[in-house]
Write a structure and sequence with these properties.
The chain is α+β, with helices and mostly antiparallel strands and 995 residues long. 42% of the residues lie in helices and 23% in strands. It folds into 8 domains: 2-144, no CATH class; 149-245, Beta-Lactamase (2-Layer Sandwich); 264-364, Beta-Lactamase (2-Layer Sandwich), CATH 3.30.450; 385-494, 2-Layer Sandwich (Beta-Lactamase), CATH 3.30.450; 500-593, PAS domain (Beta-Lactamase); 599-672, Helix Hairpins; 681-846, Heat Shock Protein 90, CATH 3.30.565; 867-994, Rossmann fold (3-Layer(aba) Sandwich), CATH 3.40.50. The strands form 8 sheets. A 5-stranded antiparallel beta sheet has the order 4-3-7-6-5. The longest helix is centred in the middle third of the chain and has 47 residues, at 595-641.
Length: 995
Amino acid sequence: MEHEGQLDAALTALRHLGRVFRNERDPNVLVDRTCRVMTERLGFARAWVELGGDDRRPSSSPGHHAWPMSGGPRRMGTLFATEPPDAPVSRAALELGPEIAEGLAHALETIELDALTPSALDTQARRAQQALRASEAKLRSYLEHAPVGVLVSTAAGVLLEANAAADALLAEEGLHLEGGTLPELAVEPAAMQAHLQIANSAGRAQSTLPLVSATGQVLQASVDTVRLDSGQLLTTVLDLTDRLAAERGLREREAQYRGVIESSVDGFLMSDLAGRIVEANEAYARQSGYSREALLGMWAWELDADRTEEDWDRGAQVLQARGGLTFETAHRRKDGSLWQVEVVASYRSVAGGRVFAFFRDLSHRQRSEVLTRTRLELARLAETSSVDVLLRFALDTAKSLTESGTGFFDFVDEEKGRGRVGFPPGHMARARELVVPIHRGSRVVAAIGVGNKASPYTDEDLDTLSTLADVVIDTVARRWAEAQLQASEARYRSLVENMEDIVYSLDEEGRVSYVSGAISHLGYRPADVMGQGLDALVHPEDGTAATTRGVARLNQELRVVDWSGAVRTMRDTRRALEDEDGVISGYVGVLTDLTQQRQTEEALRLAQKMEAIGRLAGGVAHDFNNLLSVILSLTGFALEDLPPGSSLRADLQDVLKAGERASTLTRQLLAFSRRQVLSPKVVSLNRVVEEMQGMLRRLIGEDIELVSRLSEEDTRVRVDVGQLEQVILNLAVNARDAMPTGGQLLLETNPTEVTGDESELQLTVPPGPYARLRITDTGVGMDDATRSRIFEPFFTTKEHGKGTGLGLATVYGIVNQSGGGIMVYSQPGRGTSFDILLPRLTAPEDFVSTITPPPIPHEVLNGRGPVVLVVEDDEGVRTLAERVVRLAGCQPITAPDGLAGLKLAEENQDRLALVLTDVVMPALNGHDLVRRLRIRNPELRVIFMSGYAQDMSEALGASNGSTDFIAKPFTPGKLVKRIQQMLKQPVMARAERSS
């Protein structure tokens, strides 16, 4: 495109020179205007005219020069490719094509300045005109045969002329472009129109536009339009399609080659023949520690530790001669460390000669070889060594490959990896450390690390450690899997061998091929039944069921005869083993002993029967307590009203004694039903044991020696004496049954301290002072299995029908209810020892007064004191309670049930001081009544009356000092005292309770 513009400029310059030669007669002006044409029209920075002959020099304007030539006539001449040796401005002339230069030079050289006479000037002007026409003809011929399209058009773009190249490029076959327009040739006419507007206004326009070719295809063309002095436009068109495609292909190939080089794991350097580096990829920069920018400009021998500058020069000559070389050498990193490389170098004669070199890090290959040997060695060690040995071998390899001073494994699952491996005892300072997580799937299972390397860790160290970690974890995981499989097999075998049930397998013929050690429960050894059918163990009447075959699943009950001949009930659960074709190849099954379960079920049925009787006894005792309360109270009133010496006094006293015995009977009934109310008192443990010795001697018989070793220290406890006596009696009876041929029963007491270390306590008790009661026999003793179950309800070692299995469970419950704990020690043939621990009293306030309370004050009978609501469904008890309330100096109001009591309480809520209520009542029981009353009056004082233990615990469970309980039957004196105490008792405020 630039060349075509030069053609246009040359033609224009020739036309201007023609006008100058025709019109100018002054030589100096002629030279000056000629130089102006050269600078202004052809773009020269400087122009000059050589004058032949003498040293005269015409004047010239700034920027235009005339230089003398020695010898010959003075003629105008030009230099196009060189400059005069003493030219003031060192700038080459504009490089024109040879045809243009020749025509221009010929036109100028025809002018002889010495002969510029009028006639000579006319002659020379004609001569110049002829030369110009000849030169223009040459130029036109050149343009016609130019390889680029040349078009002449009007300012509007109408085509006037087109050379052959333009027709061939843009005209349809057999047609010419003259007469058409330039916008018609463009794919986008508006773009061509804008191009022409720029050329018309600015004098020149250069664009790259899509044009429609002669074949109808779109081509990318360089369009260069120049406005001529005539106003016409000279346009050159150069097809850029092939060149652009070539450039694009070149760029793509260059990008591909650069992509290959940049993505290569090998380092790459390019240098000139002198050894200066002109290109480097990121791989080499990463391996060497230099930045890519720092590498550019370095000398090759500054990186090659084995070669000097002279070695490089010799090597470059050999490479230039051979074209390629491959060798190994050592390169020096930025930190000074060395790395072995394999160099593949080649020579290319581009840009003055270039050396292309790829560098392969040999440490990768060496490390790969070490890792391969490591993998083989780990595989060998996995067959003979432990996981610890494998890990330590791997750590040694990691330290060697990374040049580290220490290494370690740290496992997330410490049970598998045994925590940390490779950590020395104590603390080790680490200057540098590299740690790589080890994954199994998506989970991190461990980490491998190295430390204390003399130089910083590199990416190669990271790759090495990661590869080694993968190798190690694969081997270790396989060992773990094998160990887990072995452990699993051992666990299942241990599970099977330690099961109470008998696990067995049968072959396809029904013969026993395996039986677990639980067969010993039947008195047999596994060898006794191997190879036999199950019918050898089964009761003859059930033998057919035992030999059933061909069934996929079986669940049946069998009677099995043990070695001693006893018959046991067992469940046989069996499943068939089938091969791929569905053919039964054997059976696996479990024999479960149901004998104990059947006995337990029988005991449960008996216990349920006893529970029903107990409920009946409890109900009878409850009603009987109501009657006794009335009888005892009214008898007491009558005795007080009798004058001294009355003959009825003895009868009434007999009535009281009978009532007290009846009260004892109700307590026994409630104890039988497990619903008795405990009456704890402060007693000496020694005294209780002493008072029971006579009874115990009669109970255990003459062939058992009774020995007491009672402590002289304080053993006071707060217990229900009757319940404690029941505990001692139950344990004594069990001891007697354990010594059928006689022995010794030892009772010991002593104070002790519980520190929380008594791990064998069946009931955990808080630390503190306790009194110990130890009951020891010399009987048959128990094994651990029996000892662990003796407190279970219905568990018994006695013969069927001789024990319910509830005695020791009752002992456990009483001790627990008394705030104590119990331990048992026993060995077969060594007897049994029970330790009962009860909280020991130490504070003075725990002493119980033995002073008899004063009699009921007879002067308090006016009944004008505080209002007390009495709620009782039993009319006799209600009347009695009303009378006692009056004796306490209070004003009673009574209700026959809870609903009536609720109504009375609402009517008297402003003056109600106390509620005395039964617990079990129709419609609304005592607990619900009190809960509803306390919605309005949370501090309302309440005394519950009942004969059931659970009623007392429920009543006092959330007491804040405003609730009391009195057990039926009661005497008037006891009830008066409770009422008076409750009315004087301070009640904790709601704010205090919430805090």
